[in-house]
Amino acid sequence: MEILSQRQLHTARLRGFWTLTKFRQTALLLVTGVCAYALTEGGPFDPAEALWMVSALFLSISGCTALNMVLDRDIDVIMERTASRPLPAGLIQPSEALMFGGTLSILGLSFAFALDLAFGLVVSAGFILDLVVYTAWLKRRTPISILLGGASGAMPVLAGRVLALGHIDAIGILLAASVVLWIPSHILALTTRRAAEYRRAGVPTWPSVYGARATRVFTAGSNLLNTTALITAGLMLRIHGAALVALLACSLVICILSTVQLAAPSAKRNWLLFKLASLYMLTSMLLLTLGSLA
């Protein structure tokens, strides 16, 4: 019975370390980088280079996420949504998470620079923006921190473009901007739903600082600008007409939803916006990629 208990604990700890990487979030950012790389290459690409890129992005993003959880463990334990995470739950010790996240980060950044200098610099910029600027410095000071967090989330897609192209260009900037402009639909919808928890944890959010209506206005405006950025990128890439129409249709759904939420807010619609946001970003990147390869 004791052996079984030890096995269960061992399995739980392994799952805990995996949880530290926030795999679904990491995978979404990884997909944006892969899509940007593939649509820029415009055809068959070097599998070895692609594998190195995926490894570098996955390790650096996962490592940064784990280190973020170390820094945020004191607020995570206060919030119902995050109290069951491995660190606040006591399943994994901070020193273990620090070693885990640090190892992944060093490997990821090393892979990135070994692959390409410009690629490594962009990946490093995302790492620093997320861990140092967003989490350690601004998250507990100002709601505007989400824009810096969004900028860090935009670095994988920019990195993929830079690796394939060799430099930053207008399309790369538009793709990165689309990720930044996607953030409000994702983060602000969540903070609106969990506003009381964030207040208890002492984390300033748009709803608590600027009010619910200003948050909805900002979200609707960001979605409109995001649509503009994506469609402009699609036109510049000369993607297939069917993909462009599908991209416009998806963007209009999000824009209409956020506009209706602005005019007639409801908790149900707010949560639907949150749920659709990640699917929207994934779909838009895939449409741009498939449309450019068609």
Please tell me about this protein's structure.
With 294 residues, the protein is an all-alpha fold. It has helices at residues 2-19, 23-41, 47-71, 73-76, 94-115, 117-138, 145-165, 170-193, 195-201, 206-210, 212-237, 241-263, 267-293. The chain starts with a helix and ends with a helix.
Number of strands: 0
Q: Number of DSSP helices?
A: 13
Strand composition percent:
under 5%
Largest sheet: none
Average per-residue pLDDT, rounded, comes to: 95
Uncertain stretches of 5 or more adjacent residues? none
Helices and strands: which structural class?
A: mainly alpha
> Shape from CA axes?
globular
How far apart are the termini?
58 Å
- Could you spell the SSE succession in H and E letters? HHHHHHHHHHHHH
Radius of gyration: 20 Å
Estimate the helix proportion, in percent. over 70%
Characteristics:
294 residues, globular, single chain, mainly alpha
List the helices and strands and how they pair.
Elements: H1 2-19, H2 23-41, H3 47-71, H4 73-76, H5 94-115, H6 117-138, H7 145-165, H8 170-193, H9 195-201, H10 206-210, H11 212-237, H12 241-263, H13 267-293
Outline of this structure?
This protein has helices spanning 2-19, 23-41, 47-71, 73-76, 94-115, 117-138, 145-165, 170-193, 195-201, 206-210, 212-237, 241-263, 267-293. The chain is mainly alpha-helical and 294 residues long. Helix 7 runs antiparallel to helix 8, helix 8 (170-193) runs antiparallel to helix 11 and helix 11 runs parallel beside helix 13.
